[in-house]
Amino acid sequence: MKKLILIGVIALSAGCTSMGVEPWDRDILAKDEMQLTTDALESAADDHIYFSKEASSGGRGFGGGGCGCN
Questions:
Q1: Model's pTM, two decimal places?
Q2: Of 1, 62, 64, 66, which sits 20 to 30 A from 18 (CA to CA)?
Q3: Running DSSP on this structure, what letter comes out for residue 62?
Q4: DSSP state letter for 52
Q5: Separation of alpha carbons 61 and 66, rounded Å
Q6: Closest CA to 68 of 60, 57, 21, 37
Q7: How do residues 52-61 score in pLDDT, each as one tens digit?
Q8: In Å, how far are 19, 29, 58 from 61, measured between CA atoms?
Q9: What is the mean pLDDT of the chain?
C-alpha cells in the first residue's frame, strides 16, 4: 500500500514539471501564423459585429440591449 501511495505522489508531482512556456519557445508562439486572427481589419470587423449584437467589447462593459441600436 505504501508503494502505491509513493507512486501516486511521484506521478502527481511529475505533472507540474512543465509550467508555462519557456523563454526560448516564445519566439515561435509570437509569429503571425500562430495568432488567432492575423488580419487587423477582419479582427476589427468581428469586434464591431460582436459589440453590436452582444453589447460588449473587448472585456469592457457597455450599456445596451444588444439590439445594435446603441
A1: 0.35
A2: 1
A3: -
A4: H
A5: 12
A6: 57
A7: 776 655 554 4
A8: 32, 30, 8
A9: 74
DSSP H helices in 1-70: 2-14, 26-29, 40-54
Place of cell 511529475: 14
Task: Record the cell numbers describing residue 32, joined without a space.
Answer: 503571425
Contact indicator for 37, 44 with CB cutoff of 8 Å: no
For residues 11 and 4, the answer to whether their CB atoms sit within 8 Å is: no
Instruction: Determine the 3-state secondary structure of 57 from DSSP.
Output: strand
Residues 6+ positions from 63 with CB-CB distance below 8 Å: 55, 70
Q: How many CB atoms lie within 10 A of CB 52?
A: 15
Q: What is the pLDDT of residue 59?
A: 53
On whether the CB atoms of residues 47 and 57 are closer than 8 A, the answer is yes
